[in-house]
Design a protein that fits this description.
By secondary structure, the protein is mostly helical. The protein contains 15 helices and no strands. Helix 3 crosses helix 12 (256-269) and helix 12 (256-269) crosses helix 13 (274-294). It is globular and about 65 Å long. 40% of the residues are buried.
Length: 339
Amino acid sequence: MTARPALSGPALAQLRVGPGRFGWLWHALPWGLAIGTYFFAGAYLTLGTAALEMILFTLSIDLCLGYAGIVTFGQAAFFGVGAYAAGLLSIHLTPDPLLGLLFGTGIAAIVGLVTGMLILHTEGVTLMMLTLAIASMLSAFALQASSLTGGDDGLQGIHISPLFGVFPFDLWGNTAYLYALGVLFLWFAAAWRIVRSPFGRSLDGIRQSPRRMRAIGTPVWWRLVAIYTLSAAMAGTAGVLKAQTNQFVGLDSLDLLVSGTALVMLILGGTRRLYGAFVGAAFYVVVQDIAAEFDPFRWMFVIGGLLVIIVMFLEGGLMGLADWARDGAARLWTRPAPK
């Protein structure tokens, strides 16, 4: 029998992540699972829709924090702005979901652009506190402007027309799930292209050493504003999806806990790994649901314990396990066959 050649170093990396024999499989696996969920989730399809929305929101934080190094704890501001914008458009102008998606995303992007231009001259703890302040101010405004937002009662009366005029948003979440999955795929493809573009490579350099990037003529501030705006738009889209699928927007959409939860999801999955947001958010939502069934009051102990274990023992989060499995499969395939 002919022995398969053993691979190591760059050759193994090519097999792992490049356009090699198995490169496509690792990209197809999470999306195949997401599609399979639609057919087999049954009554849990609404939970799957919530997971897709949080994946998109977590992905927006990864672009901002993981790739660009912008320390933000106020991403919920854009999530809530997108949700309220889509809800208000549905109530007062048109219930079309696609127009609401574009409108909510655009408003969140504008808020991200304006606030980014104001705060991205700072860095570190100062920047972090400013992002928190912006989210807190928007939350306080939503509470006080009860005639516009519904205040404590939330924004009610949202009605969403059938998608493309054909597919209604039913109680079982069939249309909502596929709608959220399609939007997530488009944003994921855009993020994948961005982080591998020259613009994305420059962001990595800015994250490591802004001074050095300025020294070679890179417009650091403008590039940070650009990725911050893009991240805000993505977070706004996640908020729009939540508003449209739930047909309700509450003050919790602007809560700082939303940002904190997404950060935990990102750490669980792994930062600077786009699929880390995918894995971390899905894992969190599933574990939360299972743990809450056993004990509705202490399920956070389970999440906290898992977070401690992953941070201490899994470098790169759950994606570290995926790397280990991928390397093992590659070595198994390339080891010499028995004679």
